Amino acid sequence: MKMRYRDLAARVFDDEIRFPAFLPSVYGRNVPNTEGILVNVYRIWTDRNYRTASSKDIHSFLSFNGFVLPESGWKQIDKYGDEDVTNEDLVHLQERMGFPVVAPLPAGRVEDAIINAGLAREMTEKSLFLEIPASWTEKEVLAFVEATKEWAWGYGTHSDDPEFLEMLLRVVPRSKKIAVLGIHHPAIIPVLAAMGADVFSSGAHARYASRGLYITDASIRPLSEMEELPCSCNACENRDPDDLERNRELLERHNLNAFLLEVKRTRNAIAEGRLYEYARRRAMTHPDIYRKFLFVVRSDWVLENLPFPKQNSIYLFENEFRPEIELGKRLARERGANIDHLAFTYPFGQTYPPMIESRPEPEDVVRAVFRYQYGIDVDVSSLRWELRKGIPRKIFMGETYIGLIRFEDGFFVPSIEGARWLKELLPPPQGRIVVDEDGVQQVRNKRTPLTDHVLDVDPGLRPNMEVIIVDENDGVIATGKSVLTAREVAEIPRVPAVKVRHRAV
Ligand SMILES: [Zn+2]
Fold first, then answer.
1. What are phi and psi of 144, to 5 degrees?
2. How confident is the model at residue 29 (pLDDT cuts 50, 70, 90)?
3. Is 371 found in the same domain as 243?
4. Which of 218, 251, 355, 420 is the most exposed place for a label (fewest CB within 10 A)?
């Protein structure tokens, strides 16, 4: 799980493939050339050529080299009332065909679902992909995840309700993937990615194509009503609706492209730090999606996971709820910082048009920044500073340089001397990442300490926070910028916990 970018509660990371990912639900011929697919195991079970199929490796059976995530086919089994197929049959089939991840049969009752997962675990060493019925209560989800998390690759749901998703995200360890299956329109992807969903899957591209329906940016339209194709993908370029009407494979390919393009644009928006704007624009597609968007950006989960500060300016078009501004206000209020004095500090100093018109005195800026970032009162009379465009920049205590107020976001970034001074003012583990002897050695070797080396962290740790890296005796060994939340540090093994900025060892 290599973290690359994050915005709101979304994370772009590399693992088997790049996430967030779209995995089309496909089977048989016409497996598209995507990074990954979702395969319904029950369909292999009921295949006329089952005997040939089951003797092959799943990749050679489908002539597909990418990542294959299995889905048990629970819905179909339920629908057709197939009593003959058992959990063991399906797990055995996946194991024999070399699925990289194995999906046991879900169940309506938690107790049965736990038994199925346990049996699967006895039959395979592979990690499990576990489906969670949207009807389960939080208590039931908690019991299931508690019993299965050690074996899980991730958890899937057919619910696109962001409230249910938030509950899942709170319960599931941060090292596991969360998949939303069966989505109906691409526009929901950036909205649910903003909440933290990692995988999206759907077979809708083919279902729509079989009914002559074409996915546009805003809706799903019958080809027969269209005069031109508003798309330049490889299926649409230089063609008109009649061409796609005649060749449904092209239509299917366009519909699939619409989902794939959406996930790429979502990842790009995360990398640009513009996921809020992008998700909002896409949510305007439909009032239901917009309602979900509003729930997501106002959720506590997004506030808790929000990278802060960010280097982006915030464009304000109207009176909107911006999680960055909400978090800034909340921190200022809790820590007793005067917002008028934070006129150069993120997010108040980065909005356009500006939120704060006044130009505070340098002394007030320094005092407010320490209150805002650390909740501490510093004796500003013991400090001096250099000004740049009237804003305090390099900060000194006597002759000692203790850090700078970063021009881009108005946050204090301590030097090693500054970290030693600051740490005495902060009760442990506030502002700190505490690493063991191996972690110290990593820093000494100019490497990044991994989460496995972390003994303790500031419980308020979030991505982009300036932190002091200390050893077990609270000695400063480095300063850095965090890339994870406190929960992620505890729950994701073997990933860099912090980007080291200055070393003391
Ligand atoms: Zn197209």
1. -65, -50
2. low
3. no
4. 218
